[in-house]
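Incident log entry.

Two folding requests arrived from the same account within the same minute. Monitoring flagged them as a possible duplicate submission, but the sequences differ. Recording both here for audit purposes.

Request one:
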Amino acid sequence: MSKLTDVPKRILIGRALRSDRLGETLLPKRIALPVFASDPLSSVAYAPGEVLLVLSIAGVSAYHFSPWIALAVVVLMFTVVASYRQNVHAYPSGGGDYEVATTNLGPKAGLTVASALLVDYVLTVAVSISSGIENLGSAIPFVVEHKVLCAVAVILLLTLMNLRGVKESGTLFAIPTYVFVAGVFIMIVWGAFRGLVLGDTMRAPTAGYEIKPEHGGLAGFAMVFLLLRAFSSGCAALTGVEAISNGVPAFRKPKSKNAGNTLALMGLLAVTMFCGIIALATATDVRMSDNPATQLFHNGVAVGADYVQHPVISQVAEAVFGEGSFLFVVLAAATALVLFLAANTAYNGFPLLGSILAQDRYLPRQLHTRGDRLAFSNGIVLLAGAAMLLVVVYGADSTRLIQLYIVGVFVSFTLSQIGMVRHWNRNLAAERDQARRRHMVRSRAINAFGAFFTGLVLVVVLATKFTHGAWVALLGMCIFFATMTAIRKHYDRVAEEIAAPEDPEEAQSDDMVRPSRVHSVVLISKIHRPTLRALAYAKLMRSDSLEALSVNVDPAETKALREEWERRGIAVPLKVLDSPYREITRPVIEYVKSLRKESPRDAVSVIIPEYVVGHWYEHLLHNQSALRLKGRLLFTPGVMVTSVPYQLESSEAARRRARKRQDWSAPGAVRRGPAQQPQDRSKDSSSST
């Protein structure tokens, strides 16, 4: 059966890679840029339009504020990029905002940042895919008619590509991303040359349209609020900036230097493209309306419900290159494609963050494990499932989805920068070298300004977008926070309950009780109470041979196991099997079979320590490797499988709940007669004895 499922798996994602080939999957800067920066680069396809859509509420007269809003976004972008360059150099391990906040502000702040980033990564996929589908749908009617189905199909395709590995997906995504960037720059340069040098008059297809203001004559506080809302919409251009700081481990050495340079290049490209499109939109008289059917007029007549409002970048490209021209078609195609690929930023950031959270016991530990292609497969699949759910619930409507956007990213921006200020304060207190102190003071000033600015923007975003859908993102953050807190409490409770006692007398009295005789091979991963109980069970069974068996999946954990084994002086030989493909089941099976071949008449008993939980949801939080091993070993001739259970408190609670249901009648209970109470059975047995 495993071979039947293995063949299609290899066809879809490729052959498994050895652990020692992890270095081959690391990214050079030319591939890292499209992998980690495709989200902020592609946002210029819709961020300028969002600014104009909000300003249109006050009519065309408000459009003259768009350059000033663009300038504010530019200042914010440079501030965030400069701040995150400090993060990259100070924390190159890949924890990003989560690590910075946890280390400097405490676990709760770190968990808040993690919740915000997880929500934002899911929204990045949903928004990018939905926007790309809408752009593609203007040319292909079938896509518009079945946009939810098409969006789900694109998510599945991206998931499959990322399951094949970071480097392979990055290579595939690099070409369209660079084509899009080149196309936008050519459009900006050619548009500036035509307007400033040749003196041509470039007109967008909507230049002659009129906008009926939704709220005419806005002034005072109402106008300020509208400008702040337009600014918050333009801040969509900053989404994904933090992905590079989270993905530093995926860069080639020197990691932090390459990540910092990529971050700076990404910021420069995004700012130039954003400002260029805003300037050309102003020069070509682009008209956008939040409700074009009733607010947009052509020759005094409303355009009606059948009107398709094209994005700003499409209108500008048509004005600069000409409708139907080669460069116009290329840029339009690259724009639609790069919006799909922008989701790849989340496909790299979410699994990495999930792996770190799993390592810190805030998410199921399966998310910490790399798959066959050395990618965090479980995190990739989880992200895809959450994004598909959002797409289905919101009907792949980017206008509705984008209202949920950017709240999470500015929560993480602000807490991260506050954490960096504390980081520099702590280091300055211990540093005596004047040159290094000057560098730290400069870095602290950058992060302090970044914390103030991003915090201010967070307030603006919450104030202007809360009733438009931002509350859903906040609700999602709260759900993630509560769930991860509960998972951490569960893992902490289990770890405390199964921790191996340091007192030898306590260990002898509790977990090393001598059971009956058995010939055994004891499977272990760590030294804790279940392990000690299994060793005691096997050790004193008068076995002809006895050894403990472990599989080397993580060299650091294996080294720690050996050291702990020697420190405790456990009088059982420890054998470690190498597993270059991070498998556990196959090396154990092959080793057991080799023992059988050496002595075919002997029986081999494999003892597996397990701890038993009492709630169905707790099973989801623990590996099922013991079940897989038992299933395989049961079909191996001459091999006996023994489970040594260690009941946790939750399993005892489940047993007590079952005792309280004694009034419940099981099927057939009437035929069997009334059930005896436990105390009655004990009395009968004692009397019969």
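Request two (distinct sequence, not a duplicate):
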Amino acid sequence: MIRVLAAFLVCLFFMPSFSQTSSSINIIPKPVSLKTKPGSFKVDRNTKLVVKDEGDRGTADFFSDYVKKYYGLSLEVAREADKNYISFATKKFIKAPDNEEHYTLNSSTNSVSVEGDSYAGTFRGMQSIIQLLPVKKSSNLGIPLVTIDDQPRLAYRGLMLDVARHFFSVEFVKKYIDFIALHKMNRFHWHLTDDQGWRIEIKKHPKLTEVGGYRNGTIIGRYPGTGNDNIRYGGFYTQDEIKEVVAYAAKRYITVIPEIEMPGHAKAALAAYPFLGCTGGPYEVRQTWAVEDEVFCAGNDSVFALLQDVMDEVLPLFPSEYVHVGGDECPKSRWKTCPKCQKRIKDENLKDEHELQSYFIQRMEKYINSKGKKIIGWDEILEGGLAPNATVMSWRGEQGGIEAAKQDHDVIMTPGSFVYLDHSQSKKEDSVTIGGYLSIQKVYSYDPVPKVLNKEQQKHILGAQGNVWTEYMANPRKVEYMIFPRLTALSEVLWSPSTPRSWDEFEKRLSVQFKRYDLWKVNYSRAMYTDMRIKVDKKKKIASN
């Protein structure tokens, strides 16, 4: 039996590419309702993309670009066609939809139509057409005949990229956003500042990038490392580049949420302006990982003045209603010995340094709220009292999110044990990772809505996101390897109904998705198969003994 299983797994992994038919629909995330019929719609050079509303033109353009890039087929966008067309249309003059990303998709031998309850819904439906196309380059493009009625389970479906530890080009950030779009996700959390680098131009305070955007070396190997490469490293995005990325994401109905860390993870800023710290420095941009003791001085009003200047430039760049302020991993050792911080505790009648951190976050929240925006913070912002209008991102397990929901605060679930895509995905990784072990099976098993919450409290769970911290990801290919295929599993967790959910059934669709990765020419992990082979071999050895 063990030998049969091993042979099956090998065959499954190395199976040849094939085109989908009506009997093998492999859409991920799985639609709410999907019905099939015999036959297919043929896509050829005479197929028109019909768009009657200019608001749907971006959806047609995305599809056209995709077909041109991966199949070498140019399709004309037209206002109308009698036959042989794919139409994208968004409903008009209807009441506000219960789920704005709802769409329907119908294909016949003469045409394919997608109708969304919003432009975003139409765009999500177009992604389903993409997944009905063959998974290898072919001159014979057939779309199975289907009827789909679909909408997401959760409103917030995100993926984060840390560009502070390692910097990534605008070109790759756009590619990353396309990965988000291709998985029907809708939030890009952009982690822009940390101890190891400040990555966003602030014109009023240019040293934040001139000094804080570069470090004089990086540790070698896993922390604490085996030395330092002593190579100057860094980079930053100009405000024009930020606008370019935000506009690119908006065309894909993806909201970009910036993160400006405070009061911890601030050493790059301190290196640029030493007066921001408790000791006055000198400081340098951190060259190693882990948590840094040097943080923003909570007793210095100049710190708040500078951070308000930063927000004055950051907030207009991002249409998102949210800005992420971090709030995590802030050591209190400097505050305990800082006269200014101790005076602040006394003057504000605070109990301790934990309440001082709460004071810091609430003071910044008040300013950000005055600009018409809301804050998100990691679950440490619960300590010492939660800021009045804050949304909590629960990363140290789910408990912080559960407590926040019980306090009637909105929550985004990001527990490390389920959605930290920087963790090892194989028990025998061939490159350095931050550690831990998170298999794709475990990602797929996750339910972001805790059962311990009652129905009203569950409404505060907006959704969840995968986090990609890049201490050990120095290039785009490594990022791709770490997110694929786990991102695909997460997309189904966030979009599709929680029940029924079957790993075995998902795995069959995933085997086709692997071929789509090949079509995209992305780097992806095969750990789910290699680890299974190792497991089979171990059982085989035990059985033979």
